[in-house]
Structures are given as structure tokens and as C-alpha cells.
Design goal:
It contains eleven helices and 14 strands. It is an alpha/beta fold. The chain has two domains: 218 residues, Rossmann fold (3-Layer(aba) Sandwich); 152 residues, Glycogen Phosphorylase B (Rossmann fold). Strand 7, helix 5 and strand 8 form a beta-alpha-beta unit. Helix 6 crosses helix 9.
Length: 395
């Protein structure tokens, strides 16, 4: 994404939006080590590590620290180190910090890359001990983006992430929505937008794993955590209403509860598949007629480019600017984030109309969400970061 697309007022507070010059991309051919720190790798954070591995084509090597329970999420775990964590809490944070300090000594990385809110604590420790190494932070959707009621806890979280993120030399926002949130709350630091992207789909992905009761049958897909943010409750209620008008619908769920909660009671014509291995997920996207993303808030969910890479149209809620990830009527549709509006949309979709969108969905992936674009932009910013800090230290 062109940084010039960012709101020109984004730097009006403590935030400054960075732009890397072309000259900054020319550096030594020496491989630069990136140490990625993850308090969790569930969902998009884990798949983001796979995207970062494409930086190897630009002279970077990526190492990652993550919980032992999440190791299977990575496509390549050869450069991963784990720490023990059964659930979130003070003990888990201490184990994260211990693992971080040990790996820091072992790797001696050129760049630190911290992912999601709880890794702000190792970032803080890094600065407290006087280490001024280049550091990058990515929220993968700011905690302040939630639609929870304004509480003291939410205010504290906003203050913590808004101040501590400024300890990083560069903050990468995965979407324009995240950048806007940072601006709205006056978050500190040097912010850029590098939109999420994904690699090409598995070459042996199938398009026939869902059985069709008839030629008009429509297979819808949901992929994600079963929690309030992802809006599965909205989808299930809307699906039941839509079935009255459109009995051809069948809904497939990929995911599980992660942050507490239970698997909900599922209506007729809903199939729960659990979590799917990374090498198999493209067959689910490709076999679906459309992906439904009913989230209440998001950064830029990787399920959208994953669907597009398989030529699968997307139905998204108009929240967190997700409607701007869809070419209305060409690669999918958007809907107001409520049961009634989604039910109306699902009642009207037909397989023939969705099939016609598939070439355009694939074209949008190639134009906007290809991994080559992501790795080029990220490498440009990282090299500019190292060059800029080096120039300051040598003054």
C-alpha cells in the first residue's frame, strides 16, 4: 500500500508516519536477523510469521519466540523457540520475559519485532536495560479498537498500549483502520501502514471437499476464533433466519473457542470442522462459495486475503473499514454488523452470482494482497529503520 494513502493528519499528534526512501533500500548484502516475539500465535499472529518469512528474499532471517501450545500453527518451525504457557496471566508473562531474555542473549538480533499487546512488556524491559537496538511493534488490531463499554480497565489498556508502543522505533499498522485508531487516541511513535498479505495457496488445494445437496446448494465458510470479536453469534442467528428464505445455504465453521467460552449450539445445516492444518486450509476456502466475516472489530483479518487467493468472494461487516477490502458486487458484499442486515444478504445470495465473482476475487489478491508486495514494503521500512538509526548514532 502506498503510504501516501494515509490520512495526512495522522502525524498531527505524537504520531509521525514514516516513509522509507528508495535510497534506504540499498544496504550491505549481510543477512539481518529479526527476532519476532509473540505472546500468542493463535489466529493471524501465527500466520503473520509465515508472511514475514518472505523477507528472506530481501536479506533478512526471521526467528520467533512463541508459546509451546502454538508451535503447530507455523508452517516452518525450524527457527522457532517456545516457552511454556497453559493460559494467559502473570505466570505466562514471566515465562515470556524469561524466554525473551534468554533468546536475546543467544541470537543477538539486528532487529526486534514485537507482536500484540502483551509483548509491550518485553519491549519495556529492553529499553529499561538500556538496549537501544532497532525495535518494531505491531498490534495486529489495537486493544482500543474493541466495542466494549468504556471502563476503567479499557482506559488503562489504552494508556498502556498508547504510551509503550512509542518505545519502538517503528510501529507497523496492518490496516488503515488500525492507523486511524492510533491517530484517534493520540498513540505515540513513528507509524506506517503495511497491509496484511499472504503467500500463494497450496498447489494441491481441492475445490470439492464440501458435499452439495443440489446444483443450487451454497456452501458458506467462517474461519476464526469462537469469541465475541469475531461475531460468530451474529452469523449463526442470521443464518437461521436466512435459511427460511434460502434453504440452499450450508455453513461450515473452521475454528474453536480460544479466549474462554464454549462451542455454541449449532443450527441445522451447520458443520463444525475444528481447527484445520495450514496445509489443508486452502481446500476449505476453494470449496466454499463465499467466506463470511461478521467481526465486530478487526485490524485486517488474514482470512480475507486467504479467501481471495483461492478466488473465493467475501461477505464482510462494515466495521473497522473492512468494507474497503471488498469491491462491492465484484469480489463480494458488505453488510451492516447486525443480525437483520446479514440475514437479508444471505437470503439473497445465489451460487451462480458468487461463481461469477471468483476471477475478480483472485485478481484482487494479485493486485493488493500478494506476498511480494508485503515483503517489499516491509523490507523497505526495516532497512530504512536501520539506516536512520545508524546515522543518528554516528552523529
Amino acid at each position: 500500500m502506498d503510504d501516501s494513502a494515509i490520512d495526512p493528519d495522522l502525524g498531527s499528534r505524537d504520531i509521525t508516519v514514516g516513509t522509507a526512501s528508495a535510497e534506504a533500500t540499498i544496504m550491505s548484502a549481510e543477512t539481518l536477523a529479526i527476532f519476532n516475539v509473540c505472546e500468542t500465535a493463535q489466529g493471524g499472529v501465527g500466520r503473520y510469521q509465515d508472511a514475514l518469512s518472505a523477507l528472506s528474499n530481501h536479506g533478512f532471517s526471521c526467528h520467533v519466540l512463541l508459546p509451546d501450545s502454538d508451535i503447530d500453527i507455523l508452517s516452518d518451525a525450524s527457527r522457532a523457540t517456545t516457552f511454556s504457557r497453559s493460559r494467559r496471566g502473570p505466570v505466562a508473562i514471566l515465562r515470556l520475559l524469561s524466554g525473551f531474555m534468554a533468546e536475546r542473549q543467544r541470537l543477538k538480533p539486528n532487529i526486534y519485532f514485537f507482536h500484540s499487546t502483551f509483548t509491550l512488556f518485553p519491549l519495556l524491559i529492553l529499553r529499561v536495560i538500556g538496549d537501544k537496538s532497532p525495535a518494531v511493534y505491531c498490534a495486529h488490531c489495537w486493544a482500543a479498537s474493541s466495542d466494549d463499554k468504556e471502563t476503567l480497565k479499557k482506559k488503562i489498556i489504552r494508556q498502556v498500549e498508547g504510551r509503550l508502543c512509542g518505545l519502538a522505533d517503528l510501529i507497523v499498522n496492518v490496516s488503515q483502520s488500525d492507523a486511524q485508531t492510533a491517530q484517534d487516541f493520540g498513540y505515540r511513535g513513528n507509524h506506517v501502514v503495511v497491509e496484511n498479505a499472504v503467500a500463494e495457496p497450496s498447489p494441491d488445494a481441492r475445490d470439492d471437499i464440501f458435499r452439495r445437496r443440489s446444483l443450487k446448494a451454497i456452501n458458506l465458510l467462517f474461519v476464526g476464533r469462537f469469541d465475541r470479536q469475531k461475531g460468530l453469534d451474529i452469523l449463526l442467528e442470521a443464518f437461521q433466519l436466512a435459511q427460511v428464505e434460502n434453504p440452499a445455504l450450508h455453513l461450515h465453521l473452521v475454528g474453536e473457542p480460544v479466549r474462554g467460552g464454549q462451542i455454541p449450539s449449532l443450527p441445522t445445516a451447520v458443520t463444525h470442522h475444528g481447527w484445520i492444518a495450514p496445509e489443508q486450509i486452502d481446500s476449505y476456502y476453494r470449496s466454499a462459495d463465499a467466506l463470511v466475516v461478521p467481526s465486530r472489530w478487526e485490524g485486517l483479518p488474514l482470512v480475507i486475503p486467504e479467501a481471495y487467493r483461492n478466488g473465493t468472494p467475501v461477505l464482510v461487516a462494515r466495521t473497522s473499514w473492512m468494507e474497503h477490502l471488498v469491491e462491492e458486487g465484484a469480489t463480494g458484499y458488505s453488510f451492516a454488523p447486525n443480525v437483520g442486515e446479514l440475514a437479508k444478504l444471505l437470503a439473497l445470495v445465489d451460487r451462480q452470482g458468487l461463481d461469477k465473482m471468483r476471477p475478480q476475487a483472485r485478481a484482487l489478491y494479485e493486485k493488493r494482497f500478494a506476498i511480494e508486495r508485503f515483503s517489499h514494503e516491509m523490507a523497505r521500512h526495516l532497512r530504512a529503520l536501520i539506516t536512520g538509526l545508524g546515522a543518528k548514532l554516528n552523529k
